[in-house]
Amino acid sequence: MIEHDQGDSAEADALRDEMDGPWYRMTEAEQKEWQHEPKTERLTIALDVDDVLHPFNATLRQWCIDQGLANYPWEALVSFNLHEVWNCTEEEAMDRLDRFYASKAFKDSGPPPLMQAVTSILAERHRLIAISARPLFLRNFTKAWVFANYPQVKTCRVIGNGPNVRNSQSFTKATYCKLSNVAIIVEDAPYHAKDLLAAHIPVIMPRYPWNKDFTNTVAGGILYKVDGLADIPKAVEAVSRMRR
């Protein structure tokens, strides 16, 4: 069910030239600006791991179906609290996640389609770092996975802070982004996006069922939603201009 993108230069070229997405419908002048006349400074862009760099919820859903633990449509993922989606207790949900983290399905899963090409394009102009709220015991695995699949990403931080993490840490993504001088973050989770916006860190948010109703309530905050991961490069350039 999960496609693996090889991320070579041909994929990046195809992403630029052929995919039917909003930022591919550029005028000739826009194409010239993108290719030959960059006007934005080199920024530090943070990329969330789960559901940005890694197809976490798609992989988890398929694993649940294969294991006979739950069978729910993609559209049912309207909450970040998995015990609500699975109709079980919080402890049962944590136990299920522990089993998933130990599974071959999780350990062997690859990047979302075209995401490696997206990072190749972003790295042409910006510095890329990865940040994950996964449990701390997954720190080494997550870093190794990110560096193996995304050579353009030079730093990866796992903070263990989130609604589906035992003993959630107090160190937040917003704090890390401030300390790392992050200009923009690509983040799908409302739980983290709320803090990031409050810290005046612009958020690019790929649309998923669990964030479809999330809106920005922070004066001066920038929330830029995109329909797909392939739209991220154009969104980064748009937001970099908005934040000036």
Second-tier CATH architecture of the largest domain: 3-Layer(aba) Sandwich
Radius of gyration: 18 Å
Report the average pLDDT across residues.
86
Give the tally of structural domains.
2
Please give a handful of descriptors for the protein shown.
disordered N terminus, 244 residues, 2 domains, 11 helices, Rossmann fold, globular, alpha/beta
Secondary structure: elements and pairs:
Elements lengths: L8 H9 L10 H9 L7 E5 L7 H12 L14 H5 L3 H12 L2 H4 L7 H9 L3 E6 L6 H11 L3 E6 L14 H7 L4 E3 L3 H9 L4 E4 L16 E4 L5 H11 L2
Parallel strand pairs: 1-2, 1-4, 2-3, 4-5, 5-6
Structure description:
A six-stranded parallel beta sheet has the order 3-2-1-4-5-6, with helices on both faces. The protein is an alpha/beta fold and 244 residues long. Helix 9 crosses helix 10 (190-198). Strand 2 (127-132), helix 8 and strand 3 form a beta-alpha-beta unit. The protein has eleven helices and six strands. It folds into two domains: 9-27 and 40-55 and 114-242, Rossmann fold (3-Layer(aba) Sandwich), CATH 3.40.50; 57-107.
Short description:
This protein is of the alpha/beta class. It has eleven helices and six strands.
